[in-house]
Design brief:
Number of strands: 9
Helix content: 25-40%
CATH topology of the largest domain: Alpha-Beta Plaits
Strand order of the largest sheet: 8-1-9
Number of helices: 8
Number of domains: 2
Largest sheet: 3 strands, mixed
Low-confidence stretches: none
Shape: globular
Strand content: 5-15%
Structural class: alpha+beta
Length: about 260
């Protein structure tokens, strides 16, 4: 039986800007405080979702969890993965720090731990552990107005259409994320055009990995060379770690060698 894909519907017309989702995300992921005013905070390696105010409306920004994620397609080592349930998750033990995912994301979401000796890529994972356990995401669990709703993606789409149809004067007739870049697990309703809220508005309806492949498939030599180079980067990175560990072990051995 095919697993039902989950999603999040964010209705900006219902958002009060209370910051409950922001705080819940911080607590769930053990993230440090990054601003004295959460409404002025920005996405970072310590902030996976933000609530900002634009043009009189409160706006959430977080990973959109694309149905066909570009970040997943460009990662040479499989550090990013699209789960059947909907979340796009990150496997830090596989990451080589190439940061291709950051360049490829059409929404500019992934962030890097620039200040750390062993940096990782950081972003919202749609509370994948909770989703796998049949629970709501932390942000939707605490939302007091229903502005952030979690559920089956198909049901959320029907609910979004119902809201637009029953209150046409309240909403722009658009479900953002329904078709953008092949569709996303996070979808948005608004009373004003999406660009007014700061969302990228000129995105292709086709999945970006498909567009990339349509070009690369005509130049197989380049693809082969790229694969060899990326494989070399991965091997060098892991080899350096192995050598460093071996040298440390040898040094420790000499230090504790009996006289």
């Amino acid at each position: 039986m095919k697993q039902v894909t989950k999603g999040i519907l964010y209705d900006s017309t219902l958002c009060l800007g209370c910051g409950a989702c922001y705080q819940a995300c911080k607590e769930k992921n053990n993230l440090a405080r990054t601003s004295d005013d959460f409404l002025k905070d920005s996405l970072s390696d310590q902030t996976y979702t933000v609530v900002n105010k634009r043009g009189g409306y409160f706006v959430r920004k977080m990973c959109m969890h694309c149905n066909v994620p570009t970040c997943v397609s460009v990662c040479p080592v499989g550090a990013l993965e699209k789960m059947a349930a909907g979340p796009v998750v990150y496997h830090e033990d596989r990451c080589i720090g190439c940061r291709y995912c950051m360049q490829a994301c059409p929404f500019g979401i992934p962030k890097y731990e620039w200040s750390k000796a062993l940096p990782r890529v950081r972003k919202c994972d749609m509370c994948s552990d909770r989703v796998q356990a049949g629970q709501k995401t932390g942000c939707s669990q605490v939302c007091p107005t229903g502005a952030t709703t979690f559920g089956d993606r198909d049901e959320l789409i029907r609910e979004a259409h119902r809201r637009i149809g029953s209150q046409p004067g309240r909403y722009v007739d658009r479900i953002y994320g329904l078709d953008e870049v092949g569709g996303t697990s996070v979808m948005i309703l608004s009373a004003v055009p999406m660009e007014a809220l700061g969302y990228p508005d000129k995105l292709s309806k086709d999945p970006l990995p498909l567009l990339t492949w349509n070009i690369l498939k005509h130049i197989p030599n380049f693809v082969g060379l790229g694969a060899v180079l990326l494989g070399g980067i991965w091997w060098i990175t892991n080899r350096r770690e192995e050598v460093a560990e071996a040298e440390k072990a040898e040094a420790d051995k000499k230090t504790h060698k009996p006289v």
